[in-house]
Design a protein that fits this description.
- By secondary structure, this protein is of the alpha+beta class.
- It is 47% helix and 15% strand.
- A hairpin with a 7-residue loop joins strand 4 and strand 5.
- The structure holds adenosine-5'-diphosphate and magnesium ion.
- Magnesium ion binds next to loops.
- Adenosine-5'-diphosphate binds next to strand 12, strand 14 and strand 17.
């Protein structure tokens, strides 16, 4: 079928059927089958599907096939695509061009070029692992994540080969390597649980599954370009609230504006081609805010696809005259953006291990995994919290719109009832949801879930998976998932060990059953304090959580030191996810990132106040002074204008003082990053808030024709 016949013209724009283009730009599935000799294909599949080590002998053949496929699809260059500790992706393009001895130009990608790259590692953050002069680093092909062709709107096509990135000394300098290690760790421990229940037959590994709902804002690109704060920091550092925000609840799930849906459709088409199975699109709570969500995939692939998704959103927005804002809090006083991290464990044969099934009280294996999660989140709440800590997420967490910084689990009434039973004399029944009769004869009877939903919980059970809702919208999800998989691995390890020890070898079914119940009972008793089904936004919960002894780390400065503890080192070492040096490096990089971001924001705000806001306000002052002067000259008293002028001058004086205070706080230098981080939180961030408040007050009274920045109303309400 020709490309044109696949497209349907809708009001002048085109739509493409997902199934026609799905996966056409990835080297996997049918493409691989068609282009690889069968033995090479089979060998590669063993690595991809069963987690076996890659046979280096197949690399040359794969490289040639991949290159030919890429060139057939218009690619001229390839790159090792990796995820350094910046939290973004990195790529260095090389042409396929190779010049032979006789001067002939050929196109080439060798097996060794596919498997290994050698980018200069010195300019990526290493958290002290490497000195700047120590430059050598390697990238290593991850055959489990399909290579893809990234095509920009101008048609430039590049073969991207997902890779891990390590230092010459072997330490991981990226987000993928520890993620892959954590996936292996959780698989090993989960397999022990399956073995205990005798359900491991035919199962090669347990996989983590992941589906990330991405929230974002769209604003007109022309307006974006007029705001230094958005261009530099991704968020507005000043801006008074418009008369209308989301009070009317008229945006959430509202009709999607035409221009936006054309954009969404193009994003989807591009992502389908790249094998990213996006499925859901809708308006979010705030004006100008939207969401895109995929069908879940294997965690490693989902993490790569999440990075690709953010890239495609940004690229396509520009093409449509929008700017896509992925920041956690682009607009103060307006809902922020998150990235709900839907996570579960499944066998490689496709059985979801967090599916409670019909008669949950009989499903001891599910209850074991459930208790594993409860134990992990309670034991390592500090690490989970730290895994999502960033300067940007500080504006969102706990701000009465996003989950609080207290890590707790929502289970819903059905599972809460089962925990009660586990803690008592053992689970004997499962609460059923029943049916909903809507009272109108023509409407169907609806099956009702046994539990409600709770959007205030940072870690909610949502039927057959957990939704980690505190992850920020710009975050790379690889790191929170590395932490999550590792703490779950540790918890499953502890539970498996306990059951094996208590039940002994070859235990009878009855003995095993009694042992499991006893072990789970102890876990519930000890760890259910982390479970909370009520309103996570409420003051009452903050008090209650404190009583329960749950940590409440309100800021990044409080959260990040959790990675620099013996408890964390022991955990990550034990499961070979990160060495102490690698873990320390991550803590260091995250702290550095925090102080760097806050510093950039502070300087951006100061620049805007000095060069845009104060000058505009001074012009407004001249207008007022002129009004006073000319009224007086005309012999008319104008006490109101005089008062207004006096108070205006007063406000500008306060603004100048607040600006000086901010610049002083920002200029302080520190050798100790942790100390610097605390100073940023205690001095720089509050100084910015104070200056902003004054600016927003001034904005409300500045003549519209003098205000130098696009307003919140212009950016958010115009579609
Ligand atoms: P919600 O109503 O909470 O948005 P959805 O059913 O739309 O729930 O799911 C949200 C995300 O969760 C989707 O990306 C979906 O693919 C993902 N998801 C569903 N099941 C699983 C699972 N077993 N493991 C991981 N993610 C899952
Ligand atoms: Mg959801």
């Amino acid at each position: 079928m020709s490309r044109t016949s696949q497209q349907h013209s809708v009001n002048g724009s085109t739509q493409t059927r997902a199934s026609d283009v799905y996966g056409t730009l990835i080297f996997s599935g049918d493409t691989m089958l068609k282009r690889l000799p069968s033995d090479v294909y089979a060998s590669l599949q063993k690595t991809i599907q069963d987690g076996r080590a890659l046979d280096p002998a197949v690399a040359n053949t794969v490289a040639v096939a991949m290159k030919d496929w890429a060139i057939d699809n218009g690619a001229t260059h390839y790159c090792h695509w990796f995820q350094p500790l910046t939290g973004m992706t990195a790529e260095k393009h090389d042409a396929f061009l190779s010049i032979l001895g006789d001067g002939t130009a050929i196109e080439k990608l060798s097996g060794s070029q596919l498997i290994q790259g050698e980018p200069d590692a010195s300019s990526f953050p290493s958290g002290g692992i490497r000195d700047t002069y120590e430059a050598r680093g390697y990238t290593a092909w991850d055959p489990t994540s399909p290579a893809f062709l990234l095509r920009n709107p101008g048609g430039v096509t590049t073969l991207c080969i997902p890779t891990a990135f390590v230092s010459w000394t072997g330490e991981a300098l990226d987000k993928k390597t520890p993620l892959l290690r954590s996936i292996r760790a959780v698989s090993e421990q989960a397999m022990r649980i399956l073995k205990i229940f005798g359900t491991d037959k035919g199962v090669n590994q347990v996989v983590a599954t992941l589906g990330c709902e991405q929230e974002y804002f769209l604003i007109d690109r022309e307006l974006f370009k007029q705001r230094l704060d958005l261009m530099i920091t991704g968020r507005t550092l000043v801006g008074a609230m418009p008369p209308k925000g989301h009070q009317l609840d008229d945006h959430y799930f509202g009709a999607i504006p035409d221009r936006v849906i054309s954009f969404m459709s193009k994003v989807e088409e591009r992502l389908f081609e790249l094998g990213v199975p996006v499925k859901t699109r809708h308006n979010e709570v705030a004006p100008g805010q939207y969401e895109i969500a995929p069908t879940f995939e294997l965690s490693n692939i989902a993490c790569d696809h999440q990075m690709v998704c953010m890239h495609v959103l940004k690229m396509t927005a520009r093409e449509h005259g929008f700017e896509c804002l992925l920041h956690e809090k682009p607009f103060a006083g307006v809902n922020g953006s998150g990235k709900h991290n839907n996570w579960s464990l499944a066998t490689n044969t496709g059985i979801n291990l967090l599916d409670p099934r019909e008669e949950t009280h009989h499903n001891l294996q599910f209850l074991t995994f459930l208790c594993g999660v409860i134990r992990a989140v309670d034991t390592h709440a500090d690490l989970l919290r730290a895994s999502i800590a960033s300067a940007a997420n500080d504006h969102r967490l706990g701000a009465n719109e996003a989950p609080p910084a207290i890590m707790s689990i929502y289970l819903g009434s059905m599972l809460t009832d089962i925990l009660d039973q586990l803690e008592g004399s053992g689970p004997k029944k499962t609460i059923k949801g029943g049916e909903l009769d809507l009272g109108a004869g023509t409407l169907p009877l609806l099956p009702r879930a046994a539990s409600d939903r709770n959007r205030t919980s940072p870690f909610a059970f949502t039927g057959n998976k957990f939704e980690f809702r505190a992850v920020g919208s710009t975050a790379s999800v690889a790191w929170p998932n590395t932490v999550l998989n590792t703490i779950i691995a540790e918890s499953l390890d502890a539970i498996a060990t306990e059951i094996e020890k208590k039940a002994g070898k070859n235990a009878s079914a009855a003995k095993l059953d009694a042992t499991v119940r006893a072990v789970l009972k102890e876990i519930v008793k000890k760890h259910r304090r982390v479970c909370f089904d009520g309103d996570g936004y409420s003051e009452a919960w903050h008090k209650e959580a404190e009583k329960r002894g749950l940590p409440n780390m309100r800021s990044t400065a409080e959260a990040l030191p959790a990675f620099d503890t013996k408890k964390a080192r022991d955990l990550f070492n034990k499961y070979s996810v990160l060495s102490s040096k690698e873990l320390h490096a991550r803590a260091e990089v995250l702290m550095e990132l925090y102080v760097t971001v806050v510093g950039i924001e502070a300087r951006t705000l100061a620049t805007m106040v000095r060069t845009q806001i104060l000058p505009a306000a001074t012009r407004a002052q001249c207008e007022l002074a002129d009004a006073v002067g000319s009224s007086r000259a005309a012999g008319v008293e104008c006490p109101d204008e005089e008062n207004a002028l006096r108070s205006w001058v007063n406000s500008l004086a306060k603004m100048r003082a607040a600006l000086a205070e901010l610049e002083k706080a920002e200029a302080k230098e520190y050798d100790d990053t942790a100390k610097h981080m605390r100073q940023c939180r205690d001095e720089v961030v509050p100084a910015m808030a104070k200056l902003r408040e004054l600016c927003d007050g001034i904005e409300k009274w500045t003549p519209a024709d003098l205000w130098p920045l696009p307003t919140y109303a212009e950016m958010l309400l115009d579609r």
